[in-house]
Amino acid sequence: MTDTATVRTDAGSAGPAHPLDPASAAEYLAGRRILAAAGLLGESVRFAYYGLDEPAKDEVLAGTGWAAGRSSPSQPDRRLRAFLIDVRTGESSDVLVSLTSGQVVSRRVLDPRIDGQVPIITGDFATAEEIVRADPQWRAAMARRGLTDVTKIRTCPLTAGSFGDDDEAGRRMVRVLAFVQADPHDYAWSHPVDGVAAYLDLIERRVFRVVDEFERPVPAESGDYDDPAVRGPHRTDLRPIEITQPEGPSFTLDGTSLRWQNWSMRIGFDAREGLTLHQISLADSDGERPLIYRASVPEMVVPYGDPAFRYWQTYFDSGEYLVGKWVNSLELGCDCLGEIAYLDATIPDDFGEPRLVPNAICVHEEDHGILWKHTDIFNGSAQSRRQRRLVVSFFTTVGNYDYGFYWYFYLDGTIECEVKMTGTLFTAAYPGGDYPYSAEVAPGLGAPVHQHLFSARLDMTVDGLTNAVDEIDVGGCPVGPDNPHGNAIIQTITRLGCESAAARRADATRGRTWRVVSTERANRFGRPTAYTLYPEAAPVLLADPSSSISARSGFATNHLWVTRYDPAQRYPAGDFVNQHPGGAGLPAFIAGDQDIDGADIVLWHTFGPAHFPRPEEWPVMPVTRCGFTLKPTGFFDRNPTLDVPPPSSHC
Ligand SMILES: [Cu+2]
Hints:
The protein is mainly beta. 9% of the residues lie in helices and 40% in strands.
């Protein structure tokens, strides 16, 4: 897990430097005192989420303007949002507190049958292991498999989903799978105990059902990649690579305000979303040009595709487990090479106490090969320029998987979002034969097929608040009077006029892209300045449209959604994802079918792979990447990097 330390800071009254700055330790403590004074923090109350409730866009812009401004007299109300759960009664609530006024602003008690449950709390992991290990029926199921020492069985509390079963309605529950860990260094993922699941009520603190469907041998081969007997001796012929920047990096970081070349942005971090980027702008001779008001990846779902015993396995890593909460502390020379600037993150624990995670966010520059190059056959000029990029990233560990979220900003105005997926596969016993829903990765060990479907939320502001989106397909044309030789290639441009028309899928056969255009500003050709989203066009959600998971992760059924900006719409699968029956998030957001042509709009983009595991991904996965690209498309009047100097005098 992460390397962390508890911070206990006396709450001060100092406000944030900027209204979008993450909540500080002092602010979390101040919010906690307000909640306690209101009688909301009984002994059995825990924080399932605690974070900044960002002020709405108009309030921020009224107070500070677009540029990376400092505090002004009209600072918006500083608020924190807490999801509280009484672990004795199960009562869950969504509470807003104002640090400015020292008051509870609102409190809503959830009806879990309709609203869903608050996220899993950290304490649920230990609770689950303790209760399941003590359950007689589960112990009997283990004993039938020859597993009598339950201290050598590790358990995973997995989110339950929502399947309409009578004995599950309204319960705060998890489904618990087991793995054998014969000694403290054994790699438990190698040894799944398949066919048995304990369904655990976290409030009643008891197992209410043990599912015992089949017995298969526990796979025996060790996957402990730290063990020389498993990995073999280390290679001795890899010589050092060192990255040096003798004059230091080219970016400046002032608090949370980051500037590099023509880019500027603010950095935020949240226990649920992880890294958030704010007010991303590009400067040119006309000054700061706004591009994205806010960018983040606020949800991801990992639905598994084995229809048998483990049909319910689907994890919303952000909405159910909070990807930001599990952020890693990064280490120079191990996780990051070169001249690195780190930012710490402050993450509240189950008790709302701030916990400092040092070196949570990494900022650095990377050489990225050739930017442009030409040897001219007429004038003899031979020129070459190096591309480089600014990287803002963090890594998180959510159960078996480790995810790195990387945002890249290039000299030529390109932005990339890349997720690096690594860690270990979720395992099961392999049934034998050619089982279609799983891959055999070690003798008797299977890795069930699944998808990773991320949702990026891009609050676009290309040259201002009013934008529109065009869908652009490329294609050929039939032979005809305008195309007598049949060689014509054209773009088909379709304005996505309303929210329902903008729920779209990618189409790699048509090279489909989506262009976000300014409806206020034109380039020197009189055409709207624009940025284009290039999707990877991997499959959307593969579960049947009638399935529970399809209802619960509606966002993942399309690659693109465009909504009219609404400050309440932050999470693509809804605010309370855990055990939610479905229908929340993007499908609900577009129900009003608002006009989005020339409006303040938000793009939501689904991306990520369908993952049929490979033997080479066991016992630990080499990084697999997925993501998307945004490129300027007539945002500039020409190549904006002609002024990049040659890298050295001999080039
Ligand atoms: Cu995977």
